[in-house]
What we know:
Layout: E1 4-7, E2 10-13, H1 24-28, E3 31-39, E4 42-43, H2 46-60, H3 68-81, E5 87-94, E6 112-119, H4 122-131, E7 133-139, H5 154-165, E8 170-174, E9 180-183, E10 187-191, E11 197-199, H6 210-221, E12 226-228, H7 233-237, E13 241-246, E14 250-257, E15 260-261, H8 269-281
Parallel strand pairs: 7-8, 7-14, 11-12
Antiparallel strand pairs: 1-2, 1-6, 3-4, 3-5, 5-6, 8-9, 10-11, 10-13, 13-14, 14-15
The structure holds 4'-deoxy-4'-aminopyridoxal-5'-phosphate.
Residues 35, 182, 185-187, 207, 209-212, 245-247 line the site of 4'-deoxy-4'-aminopyridoxal-5'-phosphate (PMP).
Amino acid sequence: MSRIAYVNGAYLPHADAGVHVEDRGYQFGDGVYEVCEVRAGHMVDERRHLERLVRSLNELRIRLPMPLAALGVVLRETIRRNRVRNGLVYLQVTRGVARRDHYFPDPATPPSLVVTARSVDPARADAVAGEGIAVITVPDNRWERVDIKTIGLLPNVLAKQAAKQAGAREAWFVDASGHVTEGGSTNAWIVTGDGRLVTRPAEGGILRGITRTVMLEVAEALQLRVDERPFTVAEARAAREAFVTSATNLATAVVRIDGHLIGDGRPGAVARALRENFHKYAQTGR
Ligand code: PMP
């Protein structure tokens, strides 16, 4: 089936879908994005993703390209036209098209909006989670505003490529004090020897993942003890469990960090329970 992309008001065949060469996203990485899980044809946590989009846009003083209700229609229509039952929908907003100049363009310049959607086989994702993944650690060389979900992802791209070349799936960024911040495209968690769930506070050094927020609710419902505090690489290596969260990974166990086995090298009970219970707590639109 041919894929369709939404680009600035038009639904186009994926192969022909493009933005102008002087789009500020292309020239400067001057834009933001969101990725939302699609499950049984519906977006998961649409409201939270759109709220975070608005926050990212406000931080960068980029206008919302259309009212949120209209944006919801475009997202749903892109999902429908691509016949996605299970997968993801991606949206990107940039500061628009203007002659290349670092200064913001004329305020009347319309922001650019691109939306794509694609299917992901849930059985394959479950198979990955069933095995667990390997991560490597890399120095966190990103700017301070990683709380904004910008399309400027070069450090993340380089870190994840280094992970791939080392036979791992994710890279965990480590700050100057030796604490894990987050993954290249995921939030990072551990379960300590005495069963406490630990993840870094969202007030600094990380993106406030929507999946992270919902998993904290799941953890509370499961009566798990949670500490929102930074943890070191050494603590993670000695942990009972480690895992990552994101809209596309849900909770996926980490079974190796820099080649060291975590626990018995199999996905642990906490990561499994959080993954299994996630959709009971996430908001799925109708
Ligand atoms: N951190 C980073 C750097 C990410 O790119 C992502 C995925 N977008 C996350 C965390 C997880 O966020 P979410 O749970 O909203 O997908």
